[in-house]
Write a structure and sequence with these properties.
- The protein is mainly alpha-helical and 140 residues long.
- It has one domain.
- Helix content is 47%, strand content 6%.
- Strand 1 and strand 2 form a beta hairpin.
- Helix 3 crosses helix 4 and helix 3 crosses helix 5.
């Protein structure tokens, strides 16, 4: 057991699922995020664990930052929660995107979780969106 495993267990987190960076800097990366880097029959991610941890921190920060924007959009544009999530997704996948399409989908699922909203319907929890951010179809 590592020195912080008891804290992780107390929070209901399996310490075996975390990514270990150093004894002083533990970053818990949820399995749903790690899965973005696993192929259909892979058990090991295709990128290094420290890069996954950095990508996770970026995506988590984006989701946290989008909560205020999403709330503002909901109340000022008078659109549905699903429409807010969809617009945020298209924005994350637009020109100059700093996240991959799979990461953008994850950010939107996390945003829905933080807002206590239903996630977008569709494959991987979101509508089909092309890599350039254009909608292919939006599930109803």
């Amino acid at each position: 057991m590592w020195k912080n495993d008891d804290k992780l267990l107390a929070q209901g987190i399996d310490p075996q699922r975390r990514i270990h960076m150093s004894d002083d800097n533990l970053t818990f990366v949820p399995p749903s995020f790690i899965a973005l880097y696993l192929g259909p029959s892979q058990s090991r991610p295709r990128i290094p664990k420290d890069e996954i941890a950095q990508r996770y921190e970026l995506c988590e920060d984006l989701a946290q930052l989008l909560t205020e924007t999403a709330s503002h959009m909901l109340h000022t544009l008078h659109i549905t929660e699903g429409d807010v999530l969809y617009r945020c997704l298209v924005g994350l996948m637009g020109e100059g995107a700093v996240v991959t399409p799979d990461e953008a989908q994850w950010v939107i699922r996390r945003l829905a979780e933080l807002m206590h909203w239903q996630p977008l319907p569709g494959a991987n929890g979101g509508p089909e969106v092309s890599p350039d951010g254009g909608a292919v179809s939006q599930a109803a």
